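Exercise 3.2. Students should predict the tertiary structure of the chain below and write it as structure tokens, then compare their answer with the key that follows.

Predict this chain's 3D structure.
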Amino acid sequence: MNVTIYHNPACGTSRNTLDLIRHAGIEPTVIEYLKTPPSKPELAKMIADSGLSVREAIREKGTPYEDLGLADPALSDDQLLDAMIATPILINRPLVVTEMGTRLCRPSEVVLDILPADAFTAAFVKEDGEAVLDAEGKRLV
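Answer key:
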């Protein structure tokens, strides 16, 4: 299965998501989006495919969102996308693309919705100790 994760290694949610993908026996394409942001059309497609609005895909916390005036409801999706491409920390993460769909994986276990359920055969616990899969690989949350 082809899987791509737009990853920020400094983010615990992103690390947990990557670990869940690998726990399924899949080695994804890892794109550190802060170093290599997607193109505007790629980002727009991922957001649309995930079922989110552009506003829902913007990260506010820990970003220059307020300083850039992005809360202004008069801004168009096109303007918001331009800001996200110019300042990639504004892209909420991690975005994961698989053959089964595209999701913003917040919380990290959202990735389970777009990975084959039968790929999991063992327990998985997130960095913070929260159990996500039981000993047989069945979803707990």
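Discussion points: The chain has one domain: 3-133. DSSP finds three helices and six strands in the chain.
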